[in-house]
Amino acid sequence: MRTCLFILSLFCSSIIQGQHVLKAKVIAASNGRPIAGASVYIDNSSIGALTNAEGLVELRLPALQKIDLVVSSIGFTTFQKTIDISQASMLQEISLQEKIVDLQEVSVGGYTLEGWNVWGDFFKRIVFGNAPFASQCKILNTNQIHFRNYKTSDKVVAFSDEPILIRNNALGYLIKYDLVVFDANHTASSFSYAGHPFFTELKPDGPKQQDTWQRNREMAFFGSVNHFFRSLYRNTLAENGFMLKSAPNSVLLGASTRNVFARIPKTLTADSVAFAVDSMTVAMSFDGQIFVKIDPDIMFEGRPELKRHNPFLSQELISMLNLKTDQPVIVLFNGSYYDVLNLQQSGYWLWRESIATLLPLGFYVKG
C-alpha cells in the first residue's frame, strides 16, 4: 500500500548575528504522526540535523538568499526544494511518496535485478572515477545498493534503499549521499548520476593528518567546476586562471584538443556568456560549446606548495561544456548551479570531477 510523508514546514526566518533560523516539522500523511529521525539538511553542505520525537528540527543557516533543502527518511522518496529565504515564513506543505522497492532477483519489466557482487566495481568506477583520491574512498553500506540490468537496451540503473555512506580518507569527510539517479550503459561510455550529499568532518589522528586533509581539499578545489562557477559569478575568470573560448558543436574533443583550442582566435569574458538574473543569481547561456583551459601559473600564483606535486595537473587542462537544452544554467555565489543534468562536461573535468573530489559548498580556501 502506498502512503505519503507530509513535511509541514513552518520556516521561521530571522537574522541572529548574520544567521537565519529555519524550523520544520515532519509528519506522516497517512496518520498525522510525527516522523522521528528524518534527516533535514542543506544540499551539498555540512548543515543539517535529525528530527526529534515530535518531528521537529531547527537549523541555523548562514545569511544566504536561497537554499536547497533536502529531507530524507528511510522508506520514502527523498524531497528537495530550492527555498528563497525571503519567503521562508510561508507554510510549506510537501508530500513524498513511499518507496516501493522490488528486491526479487527475477526478470521483470525488461530488466533483471542484480547485486553489488555483479556491478559494484562498475558503480565505483563511475562515481569515484580514476582521478586522484578515488582509491581512498570507501562505500560503507554496499548491501543497500541494487541494480537493474536492462540487457536488451545495454543499460544499468542503480538505486539504494537508504543514503549511501561514503568515507573519503583523502579529504577527511563522511558523506551521506542520497542517490537520485544512476544510469549508465554497459561499457560506461555514457552515464549520468546525481544525488544529494551531506558532509560530516572526520576526526583526524592529529595535526599532521588535519594539515594533509586541508592541503588535499585545497588541491581538489582549485581548478574544479565549483571554482570555475565561483569565478564566473564574480567575473574573475582570468584572474583565477580560467580561459574561455567558444566553438561550433562540430568541433570535437580528441587527441588534438590543445591544437583545436589554440586555433580558436577569440577569448571570451565572463559577461559574454553570463548575465545577472537578480542581485544574487547569474545565468550562463551560450551557443555551440565552450572550451575552458586552466593556466596553473596564474591559478597557483603565490601558492607554490599547492602546484608542486599536484596530482590534478597531470592531465591536459582543457574541458568542454555543452548545454543539453536551450535553458540557461543558473549559478549562485557559492558556485552551486542547476539544472546539473543540463550541463554536459567533457575532457579534463570529466576525468577530474567525481564524488571522490567533492567538497561541501561552504568550503573556502584559507588565506
Give a description of the structure.
The chain has 367 residues and is an alpha+beta fold. The chain folds into three domains: 4-97, Immunoglobulins (Immunoglobulin-like, Sandwich), CATH 2.60.40; 107-201; 223-357, no CATH class. Helices cover 16% and strands 38% of the residues. The chain has helices at residues 116-128, 207-221, 225-234, 257-263, 296-299, 304-307, 348-352; strands at residues 4-10, 19-28, 39-42, 48-50, 56-62, 66-72, 79-84, 91-97, 107-108, 111-114, 137-139, 145-150, 155-160, 164-168, 173-185, 191-201, 242-247, 274-278, 281-284, 289-294, 318-323, 329-332, 337-338, 343-347. The strands form five sheets. Strands 9, 10, 11, 12, 13, 14, 15 and 16 form an eight-stranded antiparallel beta sheet that branches. The longest helix has 15 residues, at 207-221. The chain is globular. The chain starts with a strand and ends in a 15-residue tail after the last helix.
